[in-house]
UniProtKB/TrEMBL annotation:
Transmembrane segments: none annotated. Pathway: Carbohydrate biosynthesis; gluconeogenesis; Carbohydrate degradation; glycolysis; D-glyceraldehyde 3-phosphate from glycerone phosphate: step 1/1. Its main location: cytoplasm. It is found in: Cytoplasm. Substrate binds at N9, W10, K11, G174, S214, G235, G236. The active site is at H96, E168. This is Triosephosphate isomerase.
């Protein structure tokens, strides 16, 4: 049995007070979803203290949306993995396409970040996915393979056990376009095969692979019914408690 996970990515939205309200809204109705569905919220750095406090005892875990690629030192404006872990953060979203595209995140920096996340006892939610032109050229498998080989293949088996992958086709993020259920299944299955090449069938069969890209309550069920789709990384719809829990209820 694989873990089932619905993770929110709040991106650069809400004030801390609004974030607390949102968290409380999710906590109030999360009982409508199966208890086996793990809920994670990826909050801005500024919210970790207040939202983390509000999440205590709710079973909702806190993720950060990024971390520094150095352990500490003269890196003005950066936030280290150690700082995040000390605040009770359990997960760090890494390699989101917005960070790859707008902040020049490369496999080289991601390798450093992922290592620091593990060193500090947290787990990465590693995002991969192809751009529209790459999908049009039918290059999605090649792109995802490279993003896995360049980063995930450097992990030890013990580190791999804690990894969560989010497949997020860039053309579906925030666009209202969603991969069809079959498109999602096809590539999730492929990703699992690539993982198996390095870590073996058994370890790969345990890795949660989340789908991300305009996922909402109305399309989550079809996606989550697919054999290799283990949940979602949710952007826009995670900013509304009813929608976020509505997606979790699709399991
Ligand atoms: C995301 O940014 O991770 C995401 C999936 O966004 P959205 O759900 O808004 O497409």
């Amino acid at each position: 049995m694989r873990r089932t996970i619905v993770a929110g990515n709040w991106k650069m939205n809400t004030t801390p007070a609004q974030g607390v309200e949102l968290l409380e809204g999710v906590a109030a109705i999360k009982g409508e979803a199966k208890a086996s569905v793990e809920l994670i919220v990826g909050v801005p750095f500024t919210h970790i203290c207040a939202v983390g406090k509000a999440a205590q005892g709710t079973g909702i875990a806190i993720a950060a949306q990024n971390c520094a690629d150095h352990a500490k030192g003269a890196y003005t404006g950066e936030v280290s993995a150690e700082m995040l872990a000390s605040m009770g953060v359990e997960y760090v979203i890494l390699g989101h396409s917005e960070r790859r595209e707008y902040y020049g995140e490369t496999s080289e920096t991601l390798n450093k970040k992922i290592e620091l996340v593990y060193q500090n006892g947290m787990s990465p939610i590693y995002c991969i996915g192809e751009k529209q032109q790459e999908r049009e050229a039918n290059r999605q498998n090649e792109v995802c393979r490279a993003q896995i080989q360049e980063v995930v293949f450097n992990l030890t088996p013990e580190q791999f056990e804690k990894l969560i992958i989010a497949y997020e086709p860039v053309w579906a993020i925030g666009t209202g376009l969603t991969a069809t259920d079959d498109q999602a299944q096809e590539i999730h299955h492929y990703i699992r095969q690539v993982l198996a090449e390095k870590f073996g069938e058994q370890a790969a069969s345990k890795c949660p692979i989340l789908y991300g890209g305009s996922c909402k309550p109305s399309n989550a069920k079809g996606l989550f019914e697919k054999a290799d789709v283990d949940g979602g990384l949710i952007g826009g719809a995670s900013l509304n408690a009813q929608d976020f829990v509505g997606i979790a209820k699709a399991f």
